[in-house]
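stuck on this chain:
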Amino acid sequence: MKRKLSAAFAVIMAVCILMAQAVCFTAFADSEDAPSIVVSSTEAKAGDTVDVTITMSNNPGLVSANLYVNYDADVLKLKEVKDGGLLSGVTHSDNYTTSPYGLCWVNDTAPENFKVNGVLATLTFEVSEEAVTGTTTISLDQDILNFDMDNVVFDLVSGNIQIEGKHIHETELIPAKKSSCTENGNNEYYYCAGCGKYFKDAEATIETTKEAEQLPLVAHHGGEATCTKKAVCDVCGQEYGEYAPHQYTEKVADEYLKTPATCVSKAVYFKSCSVCGQASDTETFEYGELADHNYDTTTWKSDKTGHWHACTVCEDKLDFAEHTSSGPATEYEPEVCKECGYVITPALGHTHKLTLVEGFAATCTEDGQKAYYVCDGCGKWFEDATASVEITDHDSVIIKAAHTPSDWIVDKEATETEKGSQHKECTVCGTVLETEEIPAIKPVTTEPTVTEPTTVESATSKPDKGLSTSDTVTSSVISSDNGTVQTGNSNIAVILAAVLMLCSAVVYAYGYFRKNKSTK
């Protein structure tokens, strides 16, 4: 009985919920501000992993929400659920293999309704490797309450995943075809109408492209080209290839003349095409006879043998004749030919006739002059009689006047108390040339100079005192004036004798003293 009542109560609750949803949906169906919960849509290939978001907008207020995610478990596998953080108290199962999958947000301690909007959760799905091409839908069911424990109904918008499934190629043979000159042929290949791809084999293991299998056009053939018309293809009737080269031949005509004949060469013509008549740019030929000489009769050519009129092309001579002299050459005028103006003998040039201009020495009062030569004809000055060195600076021959200075002449001797004076004068004319002051003499104190003693040998023998005859006595005799030894004078001899006697006495006493000391 209790089970029947529970079942009946559940049915009644379900009907109430559906009616409430219908009422809410009707109230907001025509409003852009209707509360909505939207599942995002995306695309994927078989075997891909994709994210799908559940987003809430125009939330009128709630404290708890239960969402049930419905999806095809044969096509999609739920891998992960990430809470968006809008509502607190989220709970969900760790068993991702069931569908529908439940998400629950409950906050019993909320003081008021939550009116936040945004991403409620992000669901990560893996598309089955065996999924076929098509669309799979992710839908929602709801059970949402507000603070007053009234049901809140949202528009639930399902999301779709457009799947590109595993494709099984069904290939169609495209047979090989030869190319022509107007249509490309192709190799044998295969085409899958399902995916639009091309393959080299029926099993579709080697992919290719239509362009890669296309063969190039074959060349046109047949027909014959000329220099004015290309060849015409025997197959398609189109012109092809290049023009044929010109067929050059030798044809004499004024329009082909390159250079006319001269006295040294024949006329030269360009070859011309026998088909179209066009002249060659490079191929030529000679034709005809040599032309007559072209003499220039208005201008004489000449050398030392004579003069003539020359051919302008080959220099051949006409009207040759010997020169007619205008008269002998002079100093300034050459000998020329009266007919052609040729210079037979150049002007002789100027011959210097030199006159010596004597030189003279300068004095104390007058300038002198160097000797030089003057040409009587041209007036030029020269240093020598052969006119080899010209004097262009005429002032260079002048020898300037100059005094002859003497040595210094003392006019007044200097003393320790007064200055002196001296001068130099010209030894020729006596003119005083320079004066100078002589400084006063400074007193000079001379220190005596001591020299090495002069050795004087004495031949005085003291045999009775124990001295040998070879013993000598030395003494230094010093002058009282300057400390030097005085020689060659009687006073020195007297002093020297006295010194020798004194030295002898000293030597004797020294010997006597040593003798007595040794006997003791």
Summary: Helices lie at 2-28, 490-519. The longest strand covers residues 134-145. Confidence is low (pLDDT under 50) at residues 1-30, 454-490. The radius of gyration is 75 Å.
